[in-house]
TrEMBL record:
PANTHER family: DEHYDROGENASE/REDUCTASE SDR FAMILY MEMBER 11, DEHYDROGENASE_REDUCTASE SDR FAMILY MEMBER 11. PROSITE patterns: ADH_SHORT (PS00061). This is DHR11-like protein. Keywords: Oxidoreductase. It holds the Pfam family adh_short. Belongs to the short-chain dehydrogenases/reductases (SDR) family. InterPro entries: NAD(P)-bd_dom_sf, Sc_DH/Rdtase_CS, SDR_fam. It comes from the Eukaryota.
Length: 254
């Protein structure tokens, strides 16, 4: 990871869960990290606690489902840091919205954040790299095991799965377009399985106690497990593209 010291990484959805942990570790490893989210209070608190770290963390407010927010954020990054070298597309959400009974606005919100927002950030990150002649950048897409199977008895996440299948296709599309552009910019798709974050809590509006009860007797993934996969992909030699990483808990069926 030494070659990434002093370089700029954008982490979307950095206010909690995987994004928060990824932003923290990249900062500790010496990168200039921009953590963005709709609410930046937690990111700012994290940044305050990392003032003595090797790198730096800056909180920026951005709703990735709004193109104007994304464009404004990349313009701010350009002015303050020159541009982006690594883009970790972590922002994502799900609603309890089955295909036969879900609300249209909830379906649309999932696609706007999980798919369109991810594509917009990836596009702008590539533009930033290209205009500065950065040929070794990295675009990382945090997907889901829901991109690889549809769980039959979980209708609540069937639309969410559709968005994550889209992310898997986008990964392959980006790889082909980057190859056609004759660049060495890499793309990596990371698919976490069940993990202890507040993702399900936000989805089902559960209390922390009720959420914890769902995982009794099961050792799930941790945020650190996903962060280590990000670091593994970034640290690979420039000739190596870690294209797809699938991560499941040993004690979980799906």
């Amino acid at each position: 990871m030494e070659r990434w010291e002093g370089r700029v990484a954008l982490v979307t959805g950095a206010s909690s869960g995987f994004g928060e942990d990824i932003a923290k570790r990249l900062t500790e490893l010496g990168m200039k990290v921009i953590g963005c989210a709709r609410n930046i209070d937690k990111i700012q608190a994290l940044a305050d606690g990392l003032k003595d770290a090797k790198g730096s963390l800056t909180a920026m407010k951005c709703d990735v489902s709004k193109e104007e927010d994304v464009l404004a954020m990349f313009e701010q990054i350009k002015k303050e840091y020159g541009g982006v070298d690594v883009c970790v597309n972590n922002a994502g959400l799900s609603h309890d919205a089955p295909l036969l009974s879900g609300a249209t606005d909830q379906w649309r919100n999932m696609f706007d954040v999980n798919v369109i927002g991810l594509m917009t950030c990836s596009r702008e990150a590539y533009k930033s790299m290209k205009e500065r002649g950065v040929d070794d950048g990295h675009i990382i897409l945090i997907g889901s095991m829901s991109a690889h199977r549809v769980v039959p008895d979980a209708p609540s996440i069937h639309c969410y799965a559709a968005t994550k299948y889209a992310v898997k296709a986008i990964t392959e599309g980006l790889r082909n377009e980057l190859y056609a552009a004759k660049t060495h910019i890499r793309v990596t798709h990371i698919s976490p399985g069940a993990a202890r974050t507040d993702f399900n809590n936000r989805m089902f509006k559960d209390s922390p106690e009720k959420l914890a009860a769902k995982w009794v007797g099961v050792e799930t993934l941790t945020c650190g497990d996903i962060t280590e996969s990000v670091i593994y992909a970034l640290a690979a030699p420039g000739r190596v593209q870690i294209h797809d990483i699938l991560i499941r808990p040993v004690e979980f069926k799906y």
